[in-house]
Amino acid sequence: MTGCRAKCNNCGHELQGLVKRMKIHYKSAQGRKMKVVQVLQRLLMGIQLELVLNMVLPFVPKYDGPSVPSSAASTSAADVPSAPRPSKRPSPSGTPRKKAVLDSFVVRTSATQKAELDEQVAKMVYATNSAFRLVDHPEFVKMVEMLRPGYKPPSRQDVADEHLPQVYEKEVRKCSDILRGSTVCLGLDGWSNVHNEPIICATAMTEWSSLSGGYHRYLRRAPHC
């Protein structure tokens, strides 16, 4: 259909009779038609508004009141007295209120506090004869996180290598201070563990209390449990 011609029924424009060409012309014609319609609508709205104003304005009364003097209009904003600022209400106790700081909502653990907490966790493991791997248990770590957010407990390696000698030396000095100048009755006992390692336990009894301590040949570097 190369030689076929077509004629637009809307605008009378002639073009080649290809469907693609006719669609493009139709869309462009529709676009031009819409633009013309929009222009006509705007003109009509403008004409209607002008007609309405011409009909209404003659019936609007004029304002014949006193005019504002020019000196009053030129008064600066600095001459106008400012409204008094409301005074701060004192607290019921009479003391000034303190601003809320972020520290009251955040739990922070300093290096000194972490060292004390680590040692206390290690003491709990030693005092209860628990396995060192207890501190690595997910439920134990979760419990500590809930009690002290942001604090990470020591690992089982730290409990066995770092804290065990420190706690042992402190407990020996504590026992020495308690028993100094006292008359005691000393009792000894010995056995072996599941690894056939010898263990010696010494018990010092006084008239008011008793202290027991064990000596293990691997006490200063206990194997990881």
TrEMBL record:
Sequence segments annotated as region (Disordered): 68-100
Keywords: Metal-binding, Nucleus, Zinc, Zinc-finger
Keyword Lipid metabolism recorded: no
Any GO molecular function: zinc ion binding
Compartment list: Nucleus
Amino acid composition bias (Low complexity), ranges on this chain: 68-82
GO cellular component, one term: nucleus
Keyword rRNA-binding appears in the UniProt entry: no
SUPFAM superfamilies xref list: Hermes dimerisation domain
Family matches, as InterPro entries: ZnF_BED_domain_contain
Tree of life domain: Eukaryota
Name of this chain's protein: Transposase
Lineage, top ranks: Eukaryota, Metazoa, Echinodermata, Eleutherozoa, Echinozoa
